[in-house]
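Researcher: Go.
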Amino acid sequence: MSWLKEVFQVKKPIIAMCHLQALPGDPGYKKDKGIEWVMDMARQDLVALQKGGVDGVMFSNEFSLPYLTDVEPVTYTTMARIIGELKQDINIPYGVNVLWDPKASIDLAVATDARFVREIFTGVYASDFGLWNTDCGEVIRHQHRIGGEDIKLMFNIVPEAAAYLGQRDVADIARSTVFNNKPDALCVSGLTAGSETDSSTLKQVKDAVPDTPVFANTGVSLSNVKEQLAIADGTVTATTFKRDGVFSNEVDQSRVTAFMDVVRGVRKENG
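Model: Structure:
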C-alpha cells in the first residue's frame, strides 16, 4: 500500500473523475462550441473537485460514447492538449484513462506527467463494444519502451458493460492477475458508470489479494461510502459528485464537500 500513501498522502484516497465532454471525432462532439468549451467545462469540474477536497483526480474521455477499444489519435492528442492547458490549475495528484485503450492511456500519461492510469489490461470479455481482448505483456513492454515505468497501473478486473469469457471466480481472477501481471491496484466496478460496486464482490477480491490495493470503481455515494471503505483501500468516484447525482451533469462542489466530510470521519475512526 506504500505507493498510495506516497502519492496521495492519506489513507483510503478518493480519486475523483474529471469527465471530459465529447471530443473531436466523437458522435456527441459539439462543433459549434469547440474545444475551448470542452476545456472550460473540464476546468470548472476540476476546480469544484479540488475545492471539495478530493485526494486525486483522473481525466477521462467519458463522453466519447460509444467507446472504442482502439482509440483514434485525435482523442488522446486532444486530451493531451486539454490536460496540458489545465496543468497550472491542478494541485493534487492526477491520472488519466483513455476509454478503452491501454496503450493510448499510457502514452497520454507519459505526455502529461500523470502519476497513474486506470484501464482494462487483462482478460477477454463479451461487451457492448464487441469482443474485448487484451495483451497485457505487450502493453507493459510498451510502457517501459516509452519511459513510463514509474506510472502506477490500476487494473479494472470487473469492467463495466462486459462479462469475462472464462468460467472463473472473481477471486481466482484477482489472484492470477496479481501473480502474473503485478498490478499496482485492482478496480472493481458495477455494470455502468454510477452503478454501485457490489460489496460482496469487492470483499472477495480484497480477501483474495490482501497485499494489493483494491478500489471501489463505480457507484460509491454518500449513502454507501462508509460500507465501501470498510472493505476497499480507496475509491474512484464521479457520478455522485455531479449535480443531482446525474452522470451527464456538471460537478456540484457541495456534494463533493459532503462526501469528503464523511470520508475524513472514516479515516479518523480507523486511525
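Model: The first strand starts at residue 14 and ends at 19.
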